[in-house]
Design brief:
This protein has 483 residues and is an alpha/beta fold. The chain folds into two domains: 345 residues, Alkaline Phosphatase, subunit A (3-Layer(aba) Sandwich), CATH 3.40.720.10; 99 residues, Arylsulfatase, C-terminal domain (2-Layer Sandwich), CATH 3.30.1120. The protein has ten helices and 20 strands. The strands form five sheets. A ten-stranded mixed sheet has the order 8-7-6-5-9-1-10-11-2-12. Strands 14-15-16-19 form a four-stranded antiparallel sheet, covered by helices on one side. The protein has a two-stranded parallel ribbon with strand order 3-13. Strand 7 and strand 8 form a beta hairpin. Helix 5 packs parallel to helix 6. It is globular and about 55 Å long.
Length: 483
């Protein structure tokens, strides 16, 4: 009798385990996007940095895929984040530049975010860290598809604190920014008033992300972890202060690397490593005029705020054991605007009804580089200026005014150096395979390639417009605004 009961129990257990395994196989993957702020193409060891160690990101690259031609949607904070979240070029959804603290604008509630796409498949969703696509209540994460939010609503330098850490004094007729608010859900829970107050941020975000993973281990989730660092003013916890031996910037990057390690360790503890796609990237290139408080473009031209490669080509590492081939390098074009359609494909979720610009890059993640889902990219900046287009390895840069860091001595120890914000670039045609620094104009040698790229540009101008040529575009949508 006991033997029969044992056989019966083992049979039930086997059925239960089989059902659980079937549920796990049918469950769509978890997705984690870790976004850094102003991290440069040359700031990780796997991309050539040698001054400090990034062992967790090195391990992630060794176990996954490192992208060498991955682009931020635009070379500045708000626009880049809007592009990532919506799968659109930022100017399509009406967002340009950085939204400042007095602004009443934000990502329009009618736009569909990654969180809203995945919610259709019952994902749990969390945004942790810097938001910066509208800080008025209708634009905050809980109104944009996220179940949870903790973080700063905009950049950490939008506050009344000077570069030396002292508080600014209001001048007659001028209004100072408010103290930096830390928001949970829709409410401010504290204010950051000093440089030292910001030292908690990387650890705070990391611990909240770990708690979210643990609470949602039994259901699919999307975690958007958008670090405040290494945007100036730099701040680092006591755990990493002085650890790099290369100044505060190195300390900050090492703490971000630690954060990645903690997130991946938590996945391992929860048995979720094989069920989770983890992506690490940056919102734009380095803010070079901050000198030793800025990162490196890794030999690419210019930096943040520029449509030259240093402003928009960023590091990107993706890992998903058993799905992404380990130790691979992808040299195909890809961008953060491609994440939304890729995640939708993974989850079996419908795409937004409104037009998007991203493409599904899942074939690249599987190692099928011949698929080449993205063969061109548009470089927009300022309000709505088409400053360059790329197809394959060829990039055509149009004459335009823009930021240049060249010829100026960078700043030091929190203080910025000068830049030329309206330098008149003459443009040119560049072969990025042979000339990633964009120094040799080949326009005269290849008029046929110029003509092909001009056709791409003209189609973009008809669709999205171009302030440089005075074309409004037919398919731009309005930014959100509160009265």
């Amino acid at each position: 009798m006991k033997i029969h009961r044992l056989v019966w129990f083992v049979g039930l257990l086997s059925i239960g385990l089989s059902a659980h395994a079937a549920d796990q196989a049918a469950r769509p993957p978890n997705v984690i996007v870790i976004l850094t702020d102003d991290l440069g193409y040359g700031d990780l060891a796997s991309y050539g940095a040698s001054q400090y160690a990034t062992p967790h990101l090195d391990r992630m690259a060794a176990q996954g895929m490192r992208f060498t031609h991955y682009y931020a949607p635009q070379a500045v904070c708000s626009a880049s984040r809007a592009g990532l979240l919506t799968g659109c070029y930022p100017n399509r959804v009406g967002i340009a530049g950085a939204i400042h603290s007095p602004s009443k604008n934000g990502l329009h509630p009618d736009e569909t975010t990654i969180a809203e796409v995945l919610k259709a498949k019952r994902y749990r969703t969390a945004a942790i860290g810097k938001w910066h696509v509208g800080h008025r209540r209708p634009f905050l994460p809980l109104q944009q598809g996220f179940d949870e939010y903790l973080g700063l609503p905009y950049s950490n330098d939008m506050w009344p604190v000077r570069y030396d850490g002292t508080h600014a004094v209001a001048q007659p007729g001028k209004t100072l920014p408010v103290e930096l608010p830390l928001i949970e859900g829709n409410e401010k829970i504290r204010e950051l008033r000093t440089l030292e107050d910001q030292e908690i941020l990387t650890t705070l975000y990391t611990e909240r992300a770990q708690a979210f993973i643990r609470r949602n281990r039994d259901e699919p989730f999307f975690l958007y972890l958008a670090h405040t660092m290494p945007h100036v003013p730099l701040a680092v916890s006591s755990k990493f202060k002085g650890k790099s031996g290369q100044g505060m910037y190195g300390d900050v990057v090492m703490e971000l690397d630690w954060s990645v390690g903690e997130i991946r360790r938590t996945l391992e503890e929860c048995g979720l490593t094989g069920q989770t796609l983890v992506i690490f990237t940056s919102d734009n290139g380095p803010w070079l005029n901050y000198g030793n408080h800025a990162g490196s473009a890794g030999g690419l031209r210019e930096g943040k705020g520029c449509t030259w490669e240093g402003g928009q080509r960023v590091p990107c590492i993706m890992v998903w054991p058993g799905q992404i081939p380990a130790g691979t390098v992808c040299s195909n074009l890809a961008s953060s605007i491609d994440l939304l359609p890729t995640f939708a494909a993974l989850a079996g979720a419908p795409l937004p009804e409104r037009k998007i610009d991203g493409v599904n890059i899942l074939p690249l993640l599987r190692g099928d580089f011949a698929a080449n889902p993205r063969d061109q990219f548009l470089y927009y900046y300022r309000k709505n200026s088409l400053e360059a287009v790329r197809r394959g390895s060829w990039k055509l840069v149009f004459p335009h005014p823009g930021r240049s860091y060249e010829g100026f001595v960078p700043g030091k120890d929190r203080f910025p150096g000068k830049t030329n914000e309206n330098f008149e670039f003459s443009g040119g045609l560049y072969d990025l395979r042979r000339d990633p620094g964009e120094r040799y104009d080949l326009k005269a040698e290849h008029p046929e390639i110029v003509a092909e790229l001009e056709k791409i540009a003209q189609a973009a101008r008809e669709d999205l417009g171009d302030d440089l040529t005075g074309q409004p575009g037919k398919n731009r949508r309005p930014i959100g605004e509160v009265q």
